[in-house]
Amino acid sequence: MNSDTLKVHAVSLGCPKNRVDTERLLGSLGPSVVAAGHPENADLVLINTCGFIRPAVEESVDAILAVQESIAGLDPRPVLAVAGCLVSRYGEDLVREMPEVDIWLSTRDMNRWPALVREAMAREADPDLPRRLSTGPAYAYLKIGEGCSHRCAFCTIPDIRGPQVSFGVETLAGEAEDLVAQGVPELVLVAQDVAAYGSDLPMDWDLRTLVERLLPIQGLEWLRLMYLYPAGLTEELLSFLAEVGRPFLPYFDIPMQHAHPEVLKNMGRPFARDPRRVLDRVRKYFPDPALRTSMIVGYPGETDAQFDALCDFVRETRFTHLGVFAYQAEEGTPAAAMPDQVPEGVKEARREEVMRIQAAISEENLERWVGEEIEVLVEAPHEDWPGLYTGRAWFQAPEVDGVVYVSSEPGNPFLPGRMVRAEVQEAKTYDLVALA
């Protein structure tokens, strides 16, 4: 291995919180890290896994096996490091079944990741170096806490990542300032429950404290909050957010999971009353917010009537964005042992029905922007069409929502990471087409 460079092939699976963990580890390896392009060209292959639900577990295992196959027989062989939630959930079984993996990195031991990789690579590491961003120049995630203290009956996260641990305000502010100084215009705050930030800290800190500290950062254009549990959207928080203005965006990602009180109660959600009250509270302070949510269909015992109530709720609420998941019975969770498990075919049919309802709502919601001039954060040039770029409006979060396809005038290319004004020409089901 050339001592001046470290060729790394990194795969980050699962949520943005995992991506931040990957970026921090890569940053700790120093400024000479270069992308290997393919596993067989690397000195280090890092796979940061997800173990939240069965499809994610399968995806993670498949990724490990594919890399093992691609590097088998190489001399020298890249060091293979596997990290993340899969390791925390199935560590001993993985070590026994996959002896080809050189380093196993559990989320419970995250502070030691740089040292463990340094030892395996015989290379200096500095955990205080800046993250090595993988999201491009337009945005970065700021992970404000680890773990979760809610005990939802279907969820494995508290067992995998432990209870909530909020990071310090000044530590986060320093990281945010470093990210914006690199030219990133948008920060997306992520945690398992962003609204619960600070509830585990001894001092009088909460999400308002953190937001107040981040708002004045010079160069920060957009500040977006993701994963706000409904119970945390209090009058006090919403009143505060309504007063702060830009760069805060009135975008509320509220994982409601269902709409029927009986299903919510069986899920062990931190609220089990009418979810409309939460949305009414948001709209009291923000008359025209962007609302994103996620729903689980086919939860154990979900009846046809309860599913119909969910569909009615989706039609009535008209979410800006909606993700729908068929319930997965996860080993070790209370929900997996519940009676009246819904057949797989029924679950999938219900998922498709909710997505069909939402697709029509999404297209109707986007039609309102046709003819309007909007601000677009440019992300990247289109791979196939010269002069066409992908970007996002304020009501579109990265990676999970639709995009704006925006065309530039000939001879006037856009720079990714910059804001442009563009007139919307067309609305599709989930995307907009605009001309600058």
CATH class of the largest domain: Alpha Beta
Domain unit count: 3
Q: How many H/I helical runs?
A: 12
The CATH homology group name of the largest domain: tm_1862 like domain
Q: What letter string, H or E per element, gives the SSE order?
A: EHEEHEHEHEEHEHEHEHEHHEHEHEEEEE
What structural class do the secondary elements suggest? alpha/beta
Can you tell me the CATH topology of the largest domain? pyruvate-formate lyase- activating enzyme
Average pLDDT level: 93
Choose one word for the global shape. Answer: globular
Number of strand segments:
18
Q: Uncertain segments of ≥5 residues (pLDDT<50)?
A: none
Oligomer: single chain
The level of helicity is 25-40%
Strand content: 15-25%
Gyration radius from CA atoms, angstroms: 22 Å
Strand line-up in the sheet with most strands? 6-9-10-11-12-13
Biggest pleated-sheet summary? 6 strands, parallel
N-to-C terminal Cα separation, in Å?
A: 47 Å
Quickly give the CATH architecture of the largest domain. Alpha-Beta Horseshoe
Structural notes for this entry:
The protein has 436 residues and is an alpha/beta fold. It has three domains: 6-121, Methylthiotransferase, N-terminal domain (Rossmann fold, 3-Layer(aba) Sandwich), CATH 3.40.50.12160; 139-367, tm_1862 like domain (pyruvate-formate lyase- activating enzyme), CATH 3.80.30.20; 373-435, OB fold (Dihydrolipoamide Acetyltransferase, E2P) (Beta Barrel). Helix content is 33%, strand content 22%. The protein has twelve helices and 18 strands. It has helices spanning 16-28, 54-71, 85-97, 113-121, 157-161, 169-181, 207-214, 235-244, 261-267, 276-285, 304-317, 344-367; strands at residues 6-12, 33-35, 44-49, 79-84, 103-106, 139-143, 145-146, 165-166, 186-190, 222-225, 248-253, 290-297, 321-326, 373-381, 388-392, 404-407, 419-427, 432-435. The strands form four sheets. It has a six-stranded parallel β-sheet with strand order 6-9-10-11-12-13. A five-stranded parallel β-sheet has the order 2-1-3-4-5, with helices on both faces. Helix 8 (235-244) links the parallel strand 10 and strand 11 (248-253). The longest helix is centred in the last third of the chain and has 24 residues, at 344-367. The N and C termini lie far apart (47 Å). 42% of the residues are buried. The mean pLDDT is 93.
